[in-house]
Specification:
2 domains; three-stranded antiparallel beta sheet; Cytochrome Bc1 Complex, Chain D, domain 2; mainly alpha; two-stranded antiparallel ribbon
């Protein structure tokens, strides 16, 4: 009995030393990368929140009054739609039950999640970063020239925005494929300019008494509201509704060493060490503001007649940006499958294996799992890039971590990292 007690005490001491060692090692990395917990947004305006919430679910903002933001951004599916590629204007149903009656309705990219997009570090939005905001300069770069530069032509719109997220809200409603509808189908689709389309959308909303009153209450000192106020309200709702700041990782960063299990702590160390995840997923959000090429498999229609998608290059025309896409922030990443810009991977385990395989990941890609969406969501099989030359181009543009195959993980490391991503970074949002 005495021997058993001694062995138990020794086991406890060894366990305590192991935990202390994990905490000590993690503390070094946390200090080195100056990592901080995400804070709860503190500027809540209930009226503006209510307005933004209503706009998020409002179909009047789409050309044919048949789709809203929530159609492809459902909180039950990690603020996405659960599909590899979204289904745009003309599709039937919502989220994972949405069906494309034509292959032309399949959007080339995966519906990006909305978690923490209102955070101050989120200055680039969309997979290709086509909307950017320099807060210190109060300057936007967007697909609409009237909003861009030091002295934008429509300063009255940019003055009302206040964030990249607010500016981002102005562009899905301009996309004929996403929400606007095809020319000839409605007056917004027929508009000759971005400004005309925005004015028509605001005209629709302000004809509704409830919206007219809410805009006045949300922006009491504004004589005439415009599409910038629309974006501002939508962003305000998303900033607060989808803020994630109470994950075990955030609580650990706040000093609660018991917030993570030993396995989660080991996974965090893999994140910093052998997995080299921190090289791209850095900052408080663990990503969100930079771009990288990771030789991700290409599925679906792509952006040209060859079903190719050159990512950020299509925005900058800079050869260095070919096949680069925005690195996503990682809070609630376990909820946001499928993964990558083309929704190529079903699980986080698949994603980790892609990185662990390095340049061979794209060569060994299996698209069999995509068949589950055939007939249920898509009328025909999604295109899968198999051309050796096109695959070579993606590998050639890959980040050195991928092309150099220098990510090192054992099966045990992978298990720990997956546990960290799935449990440590998952938190609740506002009800």
């Amino acid at each position: 009995m005495l021997l058993k007690l001694i062995l138990v005490q020794i086991s406890i001491l060894i366990s305590m030393e192991a935990w202390a060692s994990l905490d000590s090692n993690l503390s070094t990395y946390i200090k080195s990368f100056q990592m901080k917990a995400i804070s709860k947004p503190n500027n809540l305006n209930e009226v503006k929140y209510l307005l933004g919430e209503k706009l998020f679910f409002e179909k009047e903002i789409s050309g044919n009054r048949n789709i809203s933001c929530s159609t492809c951004h459902d909180s039950k599916f990690g603020t996405g739609d659960g599909l590899p590629l979204s289904i745009g204007e003309g599709g039937v149903g919502v989220a994972h039950k949405r069906f494309a009656t034509s292959s032309m309705q399949v959007i080339p990219r995966n519906s990006p999640p909305l978690y923490n997009l209102g955070h101050k570090d989120m200055i680039s939005l969309f997979w290709d970063g086509r909307v950017q905001y320099r807060q210190g300069w109060d300057e936007y770069t967007t697909p609409s020239e009237v909003l861009n530069g030091d002295y934008p032509e429509r300063w009255d719109i940019t003055e009302a925005l206040g964030s990249a997220l607010a500016a981002q809200a102005l562009f899905p409603i301009l996309s004929h494929e996403e929400m606007r509808g095809q020319k000839g189908s409605n007056e917004i689709a027929n508009a000759q300019s971005d400004e005309e389309a925005w004015n028509l959308i605001m005209g629709r909303l302000l004809k509704i008494k409830e919206y007219s009153e809410l805009f006045k209450k949300a922006f009491p000192n504004v004589e005439e509201v415009n599409i910038g106020h629309f974006g501002n309200a939508l962003a305000h709702f998303q900033e607060h509704r989808f803020a994630v700041y109470d994950t075990p990782w955030d609580n650990y960063l706040r000093g609660n060493n018991s917030a993570l299990s030993a396995k989660e702590k080991r996974g965090a160390l893999v994140f910093f060490e052998g997995g080299l995840c921190i090289r791209c997923h850095n900052g408080d959000l663990l990503g969100g503001f930079a771009f990288a090429g990771v030789a991700s498999p290409q599925t679906g229609p792509g952006k040209d007649i060859k079903h190719n998608d050159e990512g950020r290059f299509l925005i900058t025309n800079n050869e260095m940006d070919k096949y680069q896409f925005r690195i996503p922030p990682l809070r609630n990443i376990a909820l946001t499958a499928p993964y990558f810009h083309s929704g190529a991977y079903k699980t986080l385990s698949d994603v980790i294996e892609h990185y662990r395989s390095g340049i061979k990941g794209i060569d060994n890609y299996s698209s069999d799992w995509l068949d589950e969406f055939l007939d249920k969501n898509y009328p025909e099989r999604l295109f899968i890039e198999t051309n050796r030359y096109m695959i070579f181009k993606k590998k050639e543009a890959a980040h050195p971590l991928i092309s150099g195959q220098i990510i090192r993980m054992t099966d045990s490391d992978k298990s720990d990292l997956l546990h960290f991503l799935e449990f440590s970074l998952t938190g609740s949002v506002r009800d």
